[in-house]
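Example (one chain per record):
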Amino acid sequence: MNIIPTKIPEVLIIEPRVFGDERGFFMETWNQQAFADHDLHMNFVQDNHSRSAHGILRGLHYQIENPQGKLVRVTSGTVYDVAVDIRRSSPTFGQWVGVELSADNHRMFWVPEGFAHGFYVMSESADFQYKCTSLYAPEHERCIRWDAPDLAIDWPLVNDEAPRLSAKDAEAGNLADAEVFQ
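Predicted structure:
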């Protein structure tokens, strides 16, 4: 597998080895030893799968207690995936990294604990799968606006149309007003 560093050192793009022929393809998406060989030690406790329609934006979500590291990938369609550093003591606090994930490019994205996370569906629909390092704890879930001016995320909105949001995401505040990690 190929590990691609980003401008935020803890956030990684991971390209698995894909073996394909006229029958299709095979790839290994998780192998604890292979990740450990790259000094990536992760203990996953929950797997999630969501399907979203074109123009849906989910995020930016995080858990202030029981924070979740997430290894994310797309198995159908295309999304733009974003990780935002919300660790106040970090030199990259408030910075973000975005990457296109698709069923065709097979890329995975490592979003460590201490980051807010969200994605925008660019294709007709997308199946999004991710492994988490902590269990979902809705009482600790927090959200930051997808278009918070203090983040200035450059979302690749299709036809410059505003994304469709959940009520929770539509009511989220800016980073300056968010409960963040120290």
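Caption: The mean pLDDT is 96.
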